[in-house]
## 1
Amino acid sequence: MLKNVMTCTGVAVLFIASNFCVAQQPVASADSTFRESLNSYCVTCHNDTLKTAGLSLQHADMENVGVDGAIWEKVLRKLKARAMPPAGMPRPDEAFYNDFAAYLEMNLDRYASKYPHPGIPDLRRLNRTEYINSVRDLLAVDVNGESLLPADNALSGFDNMGAVLTISPLLVEQYLAAARKVRIVALGDPDMHPGYDYYTVSNELMQEDRMSEELPFGSRGGIAIKHHFPMDGEYVIQVSLLKNYRDYIRGLVNKPHQLDIRLDGERLSQFSIGGEKYGKTAQLFSTAAQGDFDQEEYERYADKALEIRFSAKAGTRLVTVAFLKETTIPEDPLYPRHTVYDYSQYKGGEPGVRTVAIGGPFNAQGLGNTASRDKVFICDPVASNDEKCAHKILTILAHQAFRRPPTAEEMRELLGFYNQGQREHGFEAGIGTAIERILAGPEFLFLAERVPEDAVAGDVYRISDMELATRLSLFLWSSIPDDELRSLAESGRLSQPEVMQQQVRRMLDDPRSNSLTNNFAAQWLNLGKLNIVDPDIELFPYFEDNLRQAFQTETKLFFEYIFRNDRPLLELLNADYTFVNERLAKHYGIPDIYGNHFRKVSLVNLPRGGLLGQGSILTVTSYANRTAPTIRGKWVLENILSAPPPPPPPNIPGLRDKNDDGKVLNMRERMEQHRANPACASCHKVMDPLGFALENFDAIGRWRTLDTASNTTIDASGSLPDGTAFTGFDGLRKVLLEKRRDDFVLTVVEKMLTYALGRELGHSDAPAMRSIIRETAPDYQLSSIIKSVVNSTPFLMRRAPGRDDL
Amino acid sequence: MMIFRKAIPRRTFLRGAGAAIALPFLDSMFPAFALPDQQASAARRFSIVFAPNGMNMKDWTPADTGRSYNLSPTLAPLATYKDKMLVLSGLNNNEGDAWPGEGETAPHERAGGVFLTGVHPLREGRTGISIDQIIAGELGKHTQLASLELGLHTSDSVGNCEKGWSCAYISTLSWRTPTTPLPIEYRPRAVFERLFGDSTDPAVRLARIHKEKSILDSVTDATLRMKKSLGGGDRNRLTEFLDGVREAEHRIQMAEQQTGEQLPAMEPPTGIPSEFADHLKLMFDLQVLAFQTDMTRMITFMTGPEQSNRTYPEIGVRDVHHSLSHHRNDPVNLEKLSRINLYHSQLLTYYLDKLNATPDVDGSLLDNMIIMYGCSMSDGNGHVLQNLPMLLIGGGTGQLKGGNHIRFNEGTPVANMYLTILDKLDIQADKFGDSNGRLNLLSLA
């Protein structure tokens, strides 16, 4: 079952420099081979008296290293990173590093395969994403999670970590409220009051082109909305347009514009709006000028006429609101986003959509046929109280929601809820009440894994097939298992290697596995932070929401491409292609790209390629007004090199932008001053050079050769802690690929395993990580890593908690 | 329920649980009366109504002071309430003035940031805890919602605020902490749902309460079953969950006891009225309802954001309010500005009339409340933060007596008034913001 059988070749692939395998037959005593070097290079600090960093190697057992895994895994990591002894202290030769590392690794792994130590994931609840996805799969409804539940805390960069998925009284109440709202959306509510939903377009989004694939061809600006129409009935759409701060509709006066409103692609209405319809207008850029009286009114309130009433069937439908594109296309779509002055005083440009309000249902005709009603009501009740039909419906729902067959006791309770609702408002209300109970209950919300009855503390055992199914679906889909996965688990076949392999393939082919991009990759690469960065508008007037979105899309498409096409993992760092639309191409200086859709482009001969050249990452690692080499360096350490630096000490002085004599310092000079402080230097020495190599990218990822603030040429040279020098983006990339590729692979494996398990990793997970790395060499494709993760000890197994675990 | 009485260990806070205790008040799931002390004596309540862009002070300030003062033109619509109203002149937002070296930028941001805090606001969004939140911390102990922050504008004001300044200074006045502004809610339906859920109908509310109660009972049983079947280490999280369920049950029981009370019937509002006055009145209706049902005792209401650019075609003013407030002493502009100020006074009477007509212990809601009406600046032309237009209306449970125009000594911080209001609300405090004393409101003689 465990595949981490040690082979010499496996070691040799990873640690090219090692000649350990050749030298080790027969095995000499480790103590005699390594003790002397250990004593002279390590034990001088790490001894029983000094215990530097809480570690003593003075009497550590070098023969049975697996027993002291906590110590030796730490040593191994430092050896492989060449991070110890600290700079300035005498170092052993390369052979010692390689041989001792290989020895430790082999023995730690051997021990782990003999005595697996899989860890104990915390009992955890579904996080918000998983809740929303599970509800989607259970009831065929799309609900907006952000309005239902609070965001979850994150740990180690991910929001599915059991240790911080806490529960407050408020959350319990929100679960109750969410259950109710989900029930109403799924089944409809004959007594519902009409209400409005508001969809807003950011006023920092330039609406110069077709905005999404869901909008009609030939459209400009606007918004595509997937709106849930809760009942058959009449609805109202009201559109308000983008206004400047003096309340003038922007871009209204030059000529009439056509606004097109559609429901599922069918035109509901086309409005003609704009022009000097009621008199003369005042100048476009003004703080106080007034045109003719009625025209003034028109320019402020013309959008009040943008209202239509129409009939719609219940269900989730696509509403699009967009302008028809005029034949005159602006030559250069790069407009600065609105400055304060522009926003407050300019009423020219092109009109844009600001808010779309969808209201209803008015004159409701009935609940209609929706996907969720079809999914829930699988039988027709023969009477208003058909308990048999209710039993059938609820058994299926509970089975899926609980990820196991409901017990007789549970079914009795659910039918009790059915009866309670049924008595008051009939069959459907009864089902609805029971659904609320399912969604608010611990059987659905908690991912409980049972300890076998006969297990004693510390016992290691395989999790059940049903628990495995849930782990798989949460990892690969961020949702609950579907029928196929569940029935394989219930018949006990899921754990058969070929069945499991076939299921993983199927799950990765399913669109639900997009969660690996949208949750795993987006969280690993900090893409969420892109939503809150706010580059200085005066320094970066062209940074608007279109670019913000393009950055996000580029990185997601890039990850998705490498993942779906089984490209070698290292292409994440060195690909010579990326994905751009016209806006992003302009930003990167790639010519001849037109239109708003993304396409794959070659980057040959351009100083980009790979994650480190992408605007998303370069922007989230910058300040609003300048680059931040330290943050970029730290990002590389954490997300590429698996070597996060320790947190900074308190009371750090800020960087000085001028010298004592008033000379404006460039970034490198400022940082060098900062590093003159020895307390700062120890970490900055490691972080900064990595960030300096990226200095040719400005704070929003544009290529530059001049630091405009100090008017000096960019110096993008840097070095690794071991002294390896490099220059610029290309140089850094080359060094990372040549010298640190193992670290990058380890980082990805570490992040993936953390996300898959929903817990922080410990030293006892290190053998599993090494095993995954060996199994997926030499290309380490993401899909291979995923397959290896789900076959790893910590994913398949569990340990019964002992006294140490409480 | 037998099992439920078993001692359940106190909640064990694990890593990250700190965030869970920061939100003691409900998101309105359990609409209820909480009138525990109303039987004995009236509840103390405070209501802030804010108007943007200052006033035309010439038409606002009554010419004379003292009990026999005559109402000014702008205050004329409030004649009915002259005896229940104090006009306070000479109060100042001194801390809002720019510090030396700060530059004179962002006057409206400064005004909004200092108004309810008495603390000098910093660019990036750091000021002090606002007076309404101090009050909410105390009065909110008795109610389901500690406070409401309401307005008529979206808090989306990207681009409206001065470069580099927190936009929160423009769009809200309430600060839960010096760095946590509270967004205002402008959608009537959302306010209604926070207060009452779907309906004010007692039968509907009771049915929902019963349903939720039985769900929670069953969830408790299921959680205990699950807990029993799990190993020791896993139980902590379930204990947390059980504690949450138990608190929810407690709130529901409270709500159940109170559904016997007669709730004023009100249909849930559908959308956002497109006319200013309709929107404003609907928000006033909801505030009266919130006080009447004792869902909260502290409401801050902005009739517009700082630097509001509303036009008022319904009273013939088609110019932007903010532009008019920079009147440059042009009589035409001043007249229009006064017309807007007067219109706001008229609309305020709608609120006062309703409060006056709503019975409460020993009188009406108006008799027991304190309503503060005012601006964060006086003359908008120069963004003057001194001599603010300010009214206190209502009986304050017998603590406040109106019928007076009082002018305070030069330099008196408006924070002195807040400190005095805290006294009237029985909230202990020695200092608030830049206060340097209390006001003598001459009203308890």
## 2
Amino acid sequence: MEAMLTGFASIAQVDLLLVMLAAVLLGSFFGIVPGLGGTVGLALTIPFLFGVEPIYGIVFLVSMHAVVHTGASIPAILFGVPGTSPTAATILDGHPMAEQGRAGVAMGAQLAASGIGGVGGALALAALIPVLTPVAMAMNAPTIFALIVFGMTFIVAVSRTSIPEGFIAALFGMLIAMVGLNPHTGIGRFTFGQLWLWDGISIVVVVLGVFGFAEMIALGARGVDSTIAEGDVEIEMRWSQLWEGTKAVFQNWWLTLRTSVMGAVIGIVPGLGGDAATWICYAHAAQTCKNNENFGNGDVRGVIAVETTNNAKEGGALLPTVVFGIPGSSGMAILMGAFLIMGITPGPEMLTEHLDMIWAIVGILVISNLLCMFALYPLSGFAAKLTFVRSTYVVPPILILMAVGAFIVRGVWQDVVLAVILGFVGYGMKKWGFPRGPLVLGFVLAPLAENYLIKSLGLYGVSFVTQPIPLILLFLAILSLGYGSWESRKGKIAQGDE
Amino acid sequence: MDRGNPVKGRLRKGTNSMKSRGKTILLAFLLLIFAGSIYMDMSMGWSSKALMMPLIIASCGMAVSGVLLGYVLFFPEIFGKGNGKMEGQVISGQDVVSEDEDEVLMLFFIAALTGMILMLGFWIAMGVGFVLFMAVIGRESWKVTVIFTVMSMVTIYMIVQVGLGVSLYGGMFGLSISL
């Protein structure tokens, strides 16, 4: 209790709040520009933080990193261009809402869900530290592999009524994830002798191509006079839309709470990654919500599920980084490096000697998420109006920004070409009824699955599947697959009846 | 210029045969990729650890896409139900299908823009691309086009080159421009 009060008191200063505000705005900017994201943001700002007091540095970096996805969802909703890879899942329902002239509702829901998700994730993290820490650390390779296989069954939920197409898309995503050097053997797979393919294909390139470029092709293909918002929609975006979206988050409080906790818990598992978390929680929402037939076509609950997860998982991901010195992602690895530069050594002693620091981080997460929510509200109202701007003003700058985003990930021009090719494929998928969500889900989960499968086989042989927890998870995976297929069939029959 | 509802009137129903043809092409393309990767898996002499996952994925992909392609080719009526809609594009029960000409134009524009980026670099491609899309394809006035192009380029320059310190690709001919 004393550590909690000390931690909160250490950040309750006006100058630190101003630092947080600056970090929140910068973090949102890094999110909005496609291809930048939290990792690039951290890498770029760390050099400027040499020599500053540790508390200022930590406040700045944690605040900035916590809200990147809040900003990243703005282009995802408005243009179908994900600012960061985890926000690709926001497009599934957010962008159709913008096309229906309900961008304001999606933005309101996004901001409120992000803010509440971030706060909920931080609080869930605080509450679950003593319970989840031993559980997360006791997870062995077979358990994580089974968990990933369980996550893969959500392809069915994301595919909705096009399950075979969804599976093909997922397998295509998995296949392109295999490009590059195999971490276990050092063998270059599908690299065709090209050095730039040794590191594999960046997820930024994949989501920019499959979603971003594809959406811009679709917008341009509708004609130069077209706008993102289609059909009989009102040109004037009312501010009441923002309020309507915000209200939806509170009306769906149980979903908000569930996905916040799920996001924080998934974030804690090292190596599972934030990209997987959003898809898993989206699929969970699509499977469990009542009247779910509109998921994928502009259901506000799809936006809420993804956005709460997106911000909640950041809190979860901080736990293994700070408490055990195990960064779960490249962003967390950079953050850990920054902590070391500032003289704070992440590790188990944080729980004993610097518990106040952990509580301070929880406080920073809460405040920065709330600050970001309120700071972006006024901007969102105006940004939503961009959906009514003619495509001649929207397509060229967005295309160029995406090309720049694809280029700066690794500084190779081939990534631009790859993003464009994937854009053509993504457009074909969009046009001919192939769901694109499973492609990204497969791309994210396949390398993890391979890694843990090889580890499991190496440690226990094929008998690893008979271990109790993996066995239960694999059984749940089969159940989830069966239930999802049954739900999909039911949906198809209902669609046929209409 | 009436910009009240420019999209209205441009929506039209797609036919199942068109969608079926597109789906066939995409499925054939994916089938080819899966089959090609199986061939690569088997012919490269990779160790079992490196081979296992790609082989499983490609085999499953080939099987599922092969079966689906067979269905599309021989039982096209099955895909008339529930499978024909464009993802995320349902508006008032109408399916949105692109105008063919605009679609081809857009695909060519993106291919040309990519080609220009590769040959001439980002900055020249950016300028030419903006003018091409706005003034030539979009029929905007030259004054608006020039102002918008300059403003956009300066903004991108400020973000990328000044803010992030990243030098954009100068093209195969090395025509990098520093504004």
